[in-house]
Amino acid sequence: MLRAPGSPHRGLLPADLADDPLFRKNFAALADYNMSFELQIFASQMECAARLAADFPKTTLILQHCGMPEDLSETGMTAWRAGIQKLAVQPNVSAKLSGLGTFVHKTDPDHIARIATETVGFFGPTRCMFGSNFPIEKLWATYPELIGAYLSAFAAYSEQDQADIFHNTAVRIYRPV
Q1: How far apart are the C-alpha atoms of 100 and 132, rounded to whole Å?
Q2: DSSP 123-157
Q3: How does pLDDT run across 101-140, given as a tens digit for each residue?
Q4: Residue spans per domain, the chain
Q5: What per-residue string of b and e applies to 24-44 under the rule 16 or more CB within 10 Å gives b?
Q6: What predicted TM-score, i.e. pTM, was given to this entire model?
Q7: pLDDT score for 10
Q8: Does the domain made of 35-66+83-174 have the CATH classification 3.40.50.720?
């Protein structure tokens, strides 16, 4: 797999990959077919991804796993928040609330609540959707445990906001036939 220089993550491509002319040429074709793009990136790649979203406003980008906040130190979370803010400004970017056990290898309701509610705070409930990330999350959680953690995280939200997060946003974004 490709790896960005100095990155501990297998498969992490350079932060500016979305600026590559060939990538952009191919990305532009998505709008012709009314297709969306599943965006799985880290904080270091968010600025470039925000430019991509701004340059291709007719293509919906779906940020996977709340932007993969793998560095939970204060410095890491500051970088994650700065990147999330840049992406959230782009109206064609939505966020999938999923995969939050990936870097902690457990279903931690407090961790899920912190990251998921911060993400909703940036994007709003109408641009966020729950995703289970099963079967990967099955490595450390049962489905009821995972659902319970997310339901608990959003228990204080209005019924409408919960409907958006757990149903409406996904239906609108993915447009099932």
Answers
A1: 9
A2: H-GGGEEE---TTGGGGT--HHHHHHHHHHHTTTS
A3: 998 999 999 999 999 999 999 999 999 999 999 998 999 9
A4: 35-66+83-174
A5: eeebeebeeeeeebebebbbb
A6: 0.90
A7: 47
A8: no
